[in-house]
Amino acid sequence: MASNDPDREEDAAEATAAGEDEDTGAQIAPIVTLSEVAITTGEEEEDVLLDLKAKLYRFDKEGNQWKERGTGNVKLLKHIETGKVRLVMRQAKTLKICANHLVLPSIKIQEHAGNDKSCVWHAADFADGELKEEMFCIRFGSVENCKKFIEMVEGITESDGKHVEKESKDASDAAGLLGKLSVAESKTDEAAVPSGAAYVKAEDEKSEAETKA
Questions:
Q1: Cβ proximity of 150 and 109 under 8 Å
Q2: Which phi and psi angles does 109 have, rounded to 5°?
Q3: What processes in GO biological process is this protein linked to (predicted)?
Q4: For 37-48, how does the pLDDT look when each residue is reduced to its tens digit (9 = 90+)?
Q5: What confidence tens digit (pLDDT) does each residue in 95-147 have?
Q6: 46-160: which CATH topology?
Q7: What is the pTM of this model?
Q8: How many CB atoms lie within 10 A of CB 76?
Q9: 157 near 107, Cβ under 8 Å?
Q10: What does the domain layout of the chain look like in residue ranges?
């Protein structure tokens, strides 16, 4: 039979709560022990030049259509030692790589026709574990981010292109200098060693002088 006395019910509730809060001193060990695991992404020796959220597409030549590769953050990473820059993009939830290639002078990036929030380019991509020529299209949430991405990529390709041209010119100048040195050395050697006729004449004059003596 239920009690109609609120005081008695309150006392019973307090006693139950006190029993639940009582410390019995028993030690309960966790069923599973989790340890910290160090995760390496391969980006530890690179500086982040750009990090923007975007959606990436890859052109499927067989189906003649664009296919979505994933939504996530596209990054431009510069290696601390080599100075090389690569583009890396991972899917937001799975962290699967959907783009991974070097930003080279051969890359020509341009705004996608009809959409000022998107741009397209070709690259030799390594996202699937092997180099494959791919055509990418990336779409940003704003026109500003798209322009920022294009300007950054163009700046890197132009800078690398000038560096390659300088190295090529330096190599050409060095080759020319070595060629001049070789010619000069050959002329010096020819002057130091007399021709056959001159040598014979000199020997004859030497013999004649010795005979007279």
A1: yes
A2: -105, 140
A3: mRNA transport; nucleocytoplasmic transport; protein transport
A4: 556 677 889 999
A5: 999 999 999 999 999 999 889 999 999 999 999 999 999 999 999 999 999 99
A6: PH-domain like (2.30.29)
A7: 0.61
A8: 20
A9: yes
A10: 46-160
